[in-house]
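HUMAN:
Just now I want nothing more than another pair of eyes on a protein record. I would be glad if you read both lines and explained how they fit together. I have put the entry right below:
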Amino acid sequence: MGYVFISYSTKNQASADAMRELLKCKGIETWMAPGDIPPGSKYAQVINRAVKECACLLLMLSQDAQNSVWVAKEVERAVNYRKPVIPVRIEDVILNDEFELYISTDQVVAVQKIVQDSEDIKKLLRSVTAYTESGETVCEEAAVDQTEDRGLPAASEMPEKDLGPGSVIDGKYRIVSMLGSGIFARVYLAEHVITKKKWAVKIIENTEENFSRFAARVSVEISILNRLSHPGLPSIADMIQTDRYLMVVMDYIEGVPLSRVIAEQGAVSEVRVIEWAGQLCGVLGYLHTQIPAIIHNDIHPRNIMLKSDGKISLIDFGTALEYSAYPDEDTARIGTTYYAAPEKYEGVIDKRTDIYALGMTLYALVIGKDPSQPPYAIYPIRQKNPHVSLGLEYIIGKCMERNPEDRYQDLREMQYDLDHIDKLSQKLARKRGIRRFFSR
Protein backbone atom coordinates (compact mmCIF):
# COMPACT_ATOMS: atom_id res chain seq x y z
CA MET A 1 0.00 0.00 0.00
CA GLY A 2 1.44 3.36 -1.01
CA TYR A 3 1.42 6.65 0.86
CA VAL A 4 -0.02 10.08 0.12
CA PHE A 5 2.30 13.06 -0.22
CA ILE A 6 0.52 16.12 1.20
CA SER A 7 1.66 19.38 -0.41
CA TYR A 8 0.71 22.62 1.35
CA SER A 9 1.85 26.15 2.16
CA THR A 10 2.88 26.97 5.71
CA LYS A 11 -0.16 29.24 6.11
CA ASN A 12 -2.37 26.18 5.51
CA GLN A 13 -0.60 24.03 8.12
CA ALA A 14 -3.79 23.51 10.17
CA SER A 15 -5.76 22.24 7.16
CA ALA A 16 -2.90 19.94 6.16
CA ASP A 17 -2.67 18.54 9.69
CA ALA A 18 -6.44 17.95 9.77
CA MET A 19 -6.28 16.16 6.44
CA ARG A 20 -3.41 14.01 7.64
CA GLU A 21 -5.36 12.99 10.78
CA LEU A 22 -8.40 12.15 8.67
CA LEU A 23 -6.39 9.94 6.34
CA LYS A 24 -4.68 8.32 9.32
CA CYS A 25 -8.06 7.40 10.78
CA LYS A 26 -8.85 5.66 7.50
CA GLY A 27 -5.61 3.71 7.68
CA ILE A 28 -3.93 5.69 4.88
CA GLU A 29 -0.25 6.50 5.32
CA THR A 30 0.85 10.06 4.60
CA TRP A 31 4.08 12.04 4.13
CA MET A 32 4.50 15.71 4.98
CA ALA A 33 7.43 18.11 5.22
CA PRO A 34 9.15 19.13 7.35
CA GLY A 35 8.08 16.61 10.01
CA ASP A 36 8.93 13.53 7.95
CA ILE A 37 12.37 14.76 6.90
CA PRO A 38 15.12 13.00 8.89
CA PRO A 39 17.43 15.35 10.85
CA GLY A 40 20.56 16.29 8.94
CA SER A 41 19.13 15.30 5.57
CA LYS A 42 19.23 17.45 2.46
CA TYR A 43 15.77 19.01 2.31
CA ALA A 44 15.34 19.17 -1.47
CA GLN A 45 16.66 15.65 -2.10
CA VAL A 46 14.40 14.05 0.52
CA ILE A 47 11.32 15.81 -0.82
CA ASN A 48 12.15 14.81 -4.38
CA ARG A 49 12.48 11.16 -3.34
CA ALA A 50 9.25 11.33 -1.32
CA VAL A 51 7.35 12.67 -4.33
CA LYS A 52 8.87 10.05 -6.61
CA GLU A 53 7.90 7.16 -4.33
CA CYS A 54 4.41 8.30 -3.28
CA ALA A 55 1.17 6.81 -4.61
CA CYS A 56 -0.34 10.24 -5.24
CA LEU A 57 0.09 13.90 -4.29
CA LEU A 58 -2.70 15.59 -2.39
CA LEU A 59 -2.51 19.34 -2.95
CA MET A 60 -4.05 21.66 -0.35
CA LEU A 61 -5.00 24.28 -2.93
CA SER A 62 -5.15 27.91 -1.82
CA GLN A 63 -3.87 31.26 -2.98
CA ASP A 64 -0.87 30.90 -0.66
CA ALA A 65 -0.15 27.46 -2.10
CA GLN A 66 -0.14 28.89 -5.62
CA ASN A 67 2.30 31.58 -4.50
CA SER A 68 4.64 29.07 -2.85
CA VAL A 69 7.78 28.18 -4.82
CA TRP A 70 8.09 24.89 -2.95
CA VAL A 71 4.47 23.79 -3.53
CA ALA A 72 4.78 24.57 -7.25
CA LYS A 73 7.98 22.52 -7.42
CA GLU A 74 6.36 19.56 -5.60
CA VAL A 75 3.42 19.59 -8.00
CA GLU A 76 5.71 19.84 -11.02
CA ARG A 77 7.80 16.94 -9.72
CA ALA A 78 4.68 14.84 -9.25
CA VAL A 79 3.60 15.54 -12.83
CA ASN A 80 7.08 14.71 -14.14
CA TYR A 81 7.00 11.41 -12.23
CA ARG A 82 3.47 10.79 -13.55
CA LYS A 83 1.93 10.75 -10.11
CA PRO A 84 -1.79 11.51 -9.73
CA VAL A 85 -2.34 15.01 -8.33
CA ILE A 86 -5.51 15.45 -6.29
CA PRO A 87 -6.22 19.15 -5.70
CA VAL A 88 -8.25 19.91 -2.57
CA ARG A 89 -9.48 23.48 -2.79
CA ILE A 90 -9.75 24.80 0.77
CA GLU A 91 -10.63 28.36 -0.28
CA ASP A 92 -11.90 30.18 -3.34
CA VAL A 93 -9.02 30.47 -5.77
CA ILE A 94 -8.55 30.85 -9.50
CA LEU A 95 -5.79 28.69 -10.93
CA ASN A 96 -2.81 30.71 -12.13
CA ASP A 97 -1.01 29.98 -15.41
CA GLU A 98 1.61 27.73 -13.80
CA PHE A 99 -0.90 25.52 -12.01
CA GLU A 100 -3.15 25.35 -15.07
CA LEU A 101 -0.28 23.57 -16.82
CA TYR A 102 -0.64 20.67 -14.41
CA ILE A 103 -4.18 20.73 -12.99
CA SER A 104 -7.50 20.40 -14.78
CA THR A 105 -10.39 22.28 -13.18
CA ASP A 106 -12.53 19.15 -13.19
CA GLN A 107 -9.96 17.48 -10.92
CA VAL A 108 -10.47 20.00 -8.14
CA VAL A 109 -12.33 18.83 -5.04
CA ALA A 110 -13.82 21.81 -3.19
CA VAL A 111 -13.71 21.30 0.58
CA GLN A 112 -15.07 24.00 2.85
CA LYS A 113 -14.35 22.03 6.00
CA ILE A 114 -12.43 18.82 6.54
CA VAL A 115 -15.19 16.64 7.97
CA GLN A 116 -15.11 12.94 7.18
CA ASP A 117 -18.85 12.51 6.62
CA SER A 118 -19.14 15.28 4.00
CA GLU A 119 -19.80 14.22 0.42
CA ASP A 120 -16.70 16.05 -0.85
CA ILE A 121 -14.46 14.27 1.63
CA LYS A 122 -16.02 10.89 0.80
CA LYS A 123 -15.30 11.53 -2.88
CA LEU A 124 -11.76 12.51 -2.00
CA LEU A 125 -11.21 9.41 0.13
CA ARG A 126 -12.43 7.14 -2.68
CA SER A 127 -9.87 8.66 -5.05
CA VAL A 128 -7.02 8.45 -2.52
CA THR A 129 -7.88 4.87 -1.57
CA ALA A 130 -7.95 3.82 -5.20
CA TYR A 131 -4.43 5.13 -5.76
CA THR A 132 -2.89 3.91 -2.49
CA GLU A 133 -4.36 0.41 -2.71
CA SER A 134 -3.52 -0.14 -6.37
CA GLY A 135 0.11 -0.70 -5.45
CA GLU A 136 1.17 0.91 -8.73
CA THR A 137 4.29 2.99 -8.70
CA VAL A 138 5.87 4.96 -11.50
CA CYS A 139 9.55 4.28 -11.96
CA GLU A 140 12.09 7.02 -12.47
CA GLU A 141 12.41 6.03 -16.12
CA ALA A 142 8.82 7.17 -16.67
CA ALA A 143 9.73 10.66 -15.64
CA VAL A 144 12.71 10.54 -17.95
CA ASP A 145 10.47 9.41 -20.80
CA GLN A 146 8.14 12.32 -20.21
CA THR A 147 10.88 14.91 -20.50
CA GLU A 148 12.19 13.14 -23.58
CA ASP A 149 8.70 13.37 -25.10
CA ARG A 150 9.07 17.14 -24.91
CA GLY A 151 12.44 16.91 -26.66
CA LEU A 152 14.35 17.91 -23.50
CA PRO A 153 17.14 16.21 -21.56
CA ALA A 154 16.04 14.75 -18.23
CA ALA A 155 17.23 16.45 -15.06
CA SER A 156 19.40 13.46 -14.20
CA GLU A 157 21.06 13.77 -17.62
CA MET A 158 21.89 17.45 -17.30
CA PRO A 159 25.49 17.89 -18.40
CA GLU A 160 27.47 18.47 -15.22
CA LYS A 161 30.62 19.41 -17.09
CA ASP A 162 30.97 22.54 -19.17
CA LEU A 163 27.67 23.92 -17.89
CA GLY A 164 26.94 26.96 -20.00
CA PRO A 165 24.89 28.34 -22.93
CA GLY A 166 22.69 25.62 -24.42
CA SER A 167 22.63 23.47 -21.28
CA VAL A 168 19.19 22.65 -19.86
CA ILE A 169 18.87 22.70 -16.09
CA ASP A 170 16.42 20.31 -14.44
CA GLY A 171 14.66 19.81 -17.76
CA LYS A 172 13.18 23.31 -17.49
CA TYR A 173 15.68 26.15 -17.80
CA ARG A 174 17.84 26.53 -20.91
CA ILE A 175 20.93 28.68 -20.33
CA VAL A 176 21.16 31.51 -22.85
CA SER A 177 24.23 33.49 -21.81
CA MET A 178 26.36 34.52 -18.85
CA LEU A 179 25.26 37.68 -17.07
CA GLY A 180 28.26 37.96 -14.79
CA SER A 181 30.33 36.32 -12.09
CA GLY A 182 31.06 37.18 -8.49
CA ILE A 183 33.23 36.07 -5.65
CA PHE A 184 31.58 32.69 -5.33
CA ALA A 185 29.08 32.20 -8.17
CA ARG A 186 28.32 32.65 -11.85
CA VAL A 187 25.01 34.14 -12.95
CA TYR A 188 23.37 33.13 -16.22
CA LEU A 189 20.38 34.29 -18.22
CA ALA A 190 18.08 31.31 -18.72
CA GLU A 191 14.76 30.72 -20.45
CA HIS A 192 12.01 28.34 -19.39
CA VAL A 193 11.76 25.75 -22.14
CA ILE A 194 7.94 25.82 -22.17
CA THR A 195 6.79 29.27 -21.07
CA LYS A 196 9.85 31.05 -22.55
CA LYS A 197 9.97 33.29 -19.50
CA LYS A 198 13.43 34.60 -18.71
CA TRP A 199 15.13 33.87 -15.40
CA ALA A 200 18.46 34.60 -13.75
CA VAL A 201 20.24 31.47 -12.51
CA LYS A 202 22.99 31.71 -9.91
CA ILE A 203 25.26 28.67 -10.03
CA ILE A 204 27.85 27.53 -7.50
CA GLU A 205 30.14 24.66 -8.43
CA ASN A 206 30.87 22.01 -5.82
CA THR A 207 34.59 22.20 -5.14
CA GLU A 208 36.31 21.16 -1.97
CA GLU A 209 37.70 24.65 -1.39
CA ASN A 210 34.52 26.68 -1.45
CA PHE A 211 31.28 24.76 -1.78
CA SER A 212 30.20 24.36 1.85
CA ARG A 213 30.99 27.97 2.72
CA PHE A 214 29.43 29.47 -0.38
CA ALA A 215 26.42 27.14 -0.29
CA ALA A 216 25.78 28.37 3.23
CA ARG A 217 25.86 31.96 1.92
CA VAL A 218 23.30 31.06 -0.78
CA SER A 219 21.08 29.48 1.89
CA VAL A 220 21.16 32.79 3.76
CA GLU A 221 20.37 34.67 0.54
CA ILE A 222 17.40 32.40 -0.17
CA SER A 223 16.16 32.70 3.41
CA ILE A 224 16.31 36.50 3.21
CA LEU A 225 14.68 36.92 -0.20
CA ASN A 226 11.93 34.39 0.52
CA ARG A 227 10.54 36.57 3.30
CA LEU A 228 10.64 39.80 1.32
CA SER A 229 8.15 41.27 -1.12
CA HIS A 230 9.01 44.59 -2.73
CA PRO A 231 8.85 45.77 -6.36
CA GLY A 232 12.47 46.91 -6.13
CA LEU A 233 13.76 43.45 -5.15
CA PRO A 234 14.06 40.11 -6.98
CA SER A 235 12.34 36.95 -5.72
CA ILE A 236 13.42 33.31 -5.65
CA ALA A 237 11.60 30.95 -8.02
CA ASP A 238 13.43 27.63 -7.68
CA MET A 239 16.42 25.87 -6.16
CA ILE A 240 18.13 22.87 -7.78
CA GLN A 241 20.99 20.81 -6.42
CA THR A 242 23.04 18.13 -8.14
CA ASP A 243 26.22 16.37 -7.10
CA ARG A 244 28.28 19.11 -8.69
CA TYR A 245 26.17 22.26 -8.69
CA LEU A 246 23.88 24.31 -6.48
CA MET A 247 21.58 26.49 -8.59
CA VAL A 248 19.15 29.22 -7.57
CA VAL A 249 16.58 30.46 -10.07
CA MET A 250 15.36 34.01 -9.49
CA ASP A 251 13.67 36.90 -11.24
CA TYR A 252 15.57 38.25 -14.21
CA ILE A 253 15.63 42.02 -13.95
CA GLU A 254 15.65 43.36 -17.50
CA GLY A 255 17.55 46.61 -17.62
CA VAL A 256 21.04 48.03 -17.37
CA PRO A 257 23.25 48.39 -14.29
CA LEU A 258 23.98 51.93 -13.18
CA SER A 259 27.66 51.17 -13.77
CA ARG A 260 26.91 51.04 -17.49
CA VAL A 261 24.89 54.25 -17.30
CA ILE A 262 27.94 55.97 -15.76
CA ALA A 263 30.34 54.45 -18.30
CA GLU A 264 28.21 55.44 -21.29
CA GLN A 265 26.71 58.76 -20.18
CA GLY A 266 29.10 60.17 -17.60
CA ALA A 267 27.51 62.46 -15.01
CA VAL A 268 23.77 61.92 -14.58
CA SER A 269 21.39 64.85 -14.28
CA GLU A 270 20.54 65.94 -10.75
CA VAL A 271 16.82 65.37 -11.33
CA ARG A 272 17.42 61.70 -12.18
CA VAL A 273 19.91 61.20 -9.34
CA ILE A 274 17.39 62.56 -6.83
CA GLU A 275 14.66 60.33 -8.27
CA TRP A 276 16.85 57.22 -8.10
CA ALA A 277 18.08 58.15 -4.62
CA GLY A 278 14.47 58.32 -3.44
CA GLN A 279 13.72 54.88 -4.89
CA LEU A 280 16.82 53.41 -3.26
CA CYS A 281 15.85 54.97 0.07
CA GLY A 282 12.52 53.18 -0.28
CA VAL A 283 14.07 49.79 -1.04
CA LEU A 284 16.77 50.05 1.64
CA GLY A 285 14.31 51.50 4.13
CA TYR A 286 12.14 48.42 3.57
CA LEU A 287 15.14 46.14 4.24
CA HIS A 288 16.27 48.08 7.29
CA THR A 289 12.82 47.98 8.94
CA GLN A 290 12.58 44.20 8.79
CA ILE A 291 12.91 42.37 12.10
CA PRO A 292 15.78 41.77 12.36
CA ALA A 293 17.00 44.46 9.96
CA ILE A 294 18.53 43.25 6.69
CA ILE A 295 21.80 44.83 5.59
CA HIS A 296 22.50 44.48 1.87
CA ASN A 297 26.22 44.84 2.55
CA ASP A 298 27.41 45.38 -1.03
CA ILE A 299 25.70 48.37 -2.62
CA HIS A 300 27.41 49.81 -5.69
CA PRO A 301 26.35 50.77 -9.25
CA ARG A 302 26.80 47.25 -10.65
CA ASN A 303 24.23 45.91 -8.18
CA ILE A 304 21.57 48.46 -9.06
CA MET A 305 19.51 47.90 -12.20
CA LEU A 306 17.70 50.61 -14.14
CA LYS A 307 14.64 49.12 -15.84
CA SER A 308 12.98 50.36 -19.01
CA ASP A 309 10.17 52.01 -17.00
CA GLY A 310 12.69 54.13 -15.10
CA LYS A 311 12.34 52.13 -11.90
CA ILE A 312 15.31 50.91 -9.87
CA SER A 313 15.90 47.36 -8.61
CA LEU A 314 18.52 46.27 -6.10
CA ILE A 315 20.10 42.91 -6.89
CA ASP A 316 22.75 40.46 -5.60
CA PHE A 317 22.03 39.54 -1.99
CA GLY A 318 24.98 37.15 -1.90
CA THR A 319 26.60 38.96 1.04
CA ALA A 320 23.42 40.27 2.71
CA LEU A 321 23.10 39.82 6.46
CA GLU A 322 20.46 39.99 9.12
CA TYR A 323 21.62 42.60 11.61
CA SER A 324 23.42 41.24 14.64
CA ALA A 325 25.62 42.84 17.25
CA TYR A 326 28.04 39.99 16.50
CA PRO A 327 27.97 39.49 12.70
CA ASP A 328 29.95 36.89 10.82
CA GLU A 329 33.21 38.78 10.43
CA ASP A 330 34.22 37.11 7.16
CA THR A 331 30.96 38.18 5.50
CA ALA A 332 30.95 41.59 7.18
CA ARG A 333 34.39 42.37 5.73
CA ILE A 334 33.34 41.47 2.18
CA GLY A 335 32.77 44.58 0.11
CA THR A 336 33.66 46.60 -2.97
CA THR A 337 36.61 48.96 -2.65
CA TYR A 338 35.59 52.61 -2.19
CA TYR A 339 31.96 51.61 -1.60
CA ALA A 340 32.68 49.68 1.59
CA ALA A 341 32.31 51.79 4.72
CA PRO A 342 35.48 52.11 6.86
CA GLU A 343 33.96 50.18 9.78
CA LYS A 344 33.45 47.11 7.58
CA TYR A 345 37.18 46.43 7.71
CA GLU A 346 36.78 46.02 11.48
CA GLY A 347 33.96 43.52 10.97
CA VAL A 348 31.31 46.01 12.14
CA ILE A 349 28.18 46.66 10.08
CA ASP A 350 24.71 48.10 10.57
CA LYS A 351 22.23 50.00 8.40
CA ARG A 352 24.59 53.01 8.32
CA THR A 353 27.02 50.80 6.41
CA ASP A 354 24.48 50.62 3.58
CA ILE A 355 23.93 54.38 3.83
CA TYR A 356 27.65 54.99 3.26
CA ALA A 357 27.62 52.76 0.16
CA LEU A 358 24.49 54.52 -1.08
CA GLY A 359 26.26 57.86 -0.72
CA MET A 360 29.24 56.56 -2.70
CA THR A 361 26.89 55.34 -5.42
CA LEU A 362 25.23 58.76 -5.67
CA TYR A 363 28.70 60.34 -5.73
CA ALA A 364 29.66 58.17 -8.73
CA LEU A 365 26.45 59.20 -10.51
CA VAL A 366 26.89 62.96 -10.07
CA ILE A 367 30.57 63.07 -11.04
CA GLY A 368 30.16 60.50 -13.82
CA LYS A 369 33.06 58.35 -12.66
CA ASP A 370 33.21 55.10 -10.72
CA PRO A 371 35.79 55.60 -7.93
CA SER A 372 36.59 51.88 -7.95
CA GLN A 373 38.00 52.35 -11.47
CA PRO A 374 41.26 54.16 -12.40
CA PRO A 375 42.50 56.61 -11.20
CA TYR A 376 41.00 55.24 -7.96
CA ALA A 377 40.45 58.60 -6.30
CA ILE A 378 37.71 60.58 -4.58
CA TYR A 379 37.52 64.29 -5.38
CA PRO A 380 35.37 67.08 -3.96
CA ILE A 381 32.03 66.87 -5.78
CA ARG A 382 31.97 70.44 -7.01
CA GLN A 383 35.49 70.06 -8.40
CA LYS A 384 34.18 67.45 -10.82
CA ASN A 385 30.64 68.77 -11.26
CA PRO A 386 30.11 72.44 -10.30
CA HIS A 387 26.42 72.22 -11.32
CA VAL A 388 25.44 69.98 -8.37
CA SER A 389 23.16 71.82 -5.96
CA LEU A 390 24.33 72.59 -2.44
CA GLY A 391 21.55 70.37 -1.10
CA LEU A 392 22.52 67.26 -3.04
CA GLU A 393 26.20 67.86 -2.29
CA TYR A 394 25.33 68.00 1.42
CA ILE A 395 23.20 64.83 1.30
CA ILE A 396 25.91 62.81 -0.46
CA GLY A 397 28.61 64.16 1.85
CA LYS A 398 26.60 63.29 4.93
CA CYS A 399 26.15 59.71 3.70
CA MET A 400 29.90 59.42 3.10
CA GLU A 401 31.08 60.57 6.54
CA ARG A 402 33.80 58.24 7.84
CA ASN A 403 32.31 58.18 11.33
CA PRO A 404 28.96 56.34 11.30
CA GLU A 405 27.65 58.69 14.00
CA ASP A 406 28.02 61.62 11.58
CA ARG A 407 25.98 59.99 8.80
CA TYR A 408 22.23 59.82 8.44
CA GLN A 409 21.13 57.45 11.17
CA ASP A 410 17.99 56.44 9.31
CA LEU A 411 16.93 56.57 5.67
CA ARG A 412 13.81 58.51 6.59
CA GLU A 413 16.08 61.42 7.51
CA MET A 414 17.75 61.20 4.13
CA GLN A 415 14.42 60.92 2.31
CA TYR A 416 13.19 64.06 4.10
CA ASP A 417 16.20 66.03 2.87
CA LEU A 418 15.70 64.72 -0.67
CA ASP A 419 12.04 65.74 -0.60
CA HIS A 420 12.99 69.25 0.60
CA ILE A 421 16.22 69.66 -1.34
CA ASP A 422 15.40 73.19 -2.61
CA LYS A 423 14.84 74.48 0.90
CA LEU A 424 17.97 72.66 2.05
CA SER A 425 20.00 74.31 -0.73
CA GLN A 426 18.65 77.75 0.21
CA LYS A 427 19.46 77.17 3.86
CA LEU A 428 23.01 76.10 3.04
CA ALA A 429 23.45 79.08 0.70
CA ARG A 430 22.41 81.47 3.48
CA LYS A 431 24.88 79.84 5.87
CA ARG A 432 27.63 80.07 3.29
CA GLY A 433 26.81 83.75 2.70
CA ILE A 434 26.97 84.50 6.41
CA ARG A 435 30.35 82.76 6.70
CA ARG A 436 31.69 84.78 3.76
CA PHE A 437 30.43 88.04 5.33
CA PHE A 438 32.21 87.41 8.62
CA SER A 439 35.37 86.15 6.90
CA ARG A 440 35.94 89.57 5.26
